[in-house]
Design brief:
The chain has 96 residues and is mainly α. Helices cover 48% and strands 6% of the residues. Strands 2-1-3 form a three-stranded mixed beta sheet.
Length: 96
């Protein structure tokens, strides 16, 4: 009986240690989700279907291309995934 209790405690300790190792070794869910959400669009027409004003890298960037109709969506990850569509290099991709 005592030996069975000792085996159960030892097994519980091993499982707990393994669970903690897995929990702390995996990346945070927010980082993984943010990377997964950053969709790369084929061109500005496709991007503007989802984001009418384009995508800005940060809220503090200014548009160099003139007056726009819509405010851009701000997302560093999304901008970085679609940086190729920022022709005037003002940190706003596909502004409209």
């Amino acid at each position: 009986m005592v030996k069975e209790v000792w085996i159960i405690r030892k097994l519980s300790l091993v499982l707990l240690s393994f669970g903690l190792f897995i929990a702390f070794s995996s990346p945070p869910l927010e980082v993984a989700d943010a990377a997964a959400k950053a969709k790369t669009y084929k061109n500005c027409t496709e991007l503007n279907k989802d984001y009418k004003g384009g995508v800005a890298r940060s809220a503090s960037v200014k548009n160099k291309g003139g007056k726009t109709k819509h405010k851009p969506f701000v997302s560093k990850e999304l901008y970085d995934a679609n940086k190729k569509s920022d022709r005037d290099k003002d940190l706003i991709a596909c502004e409209k």
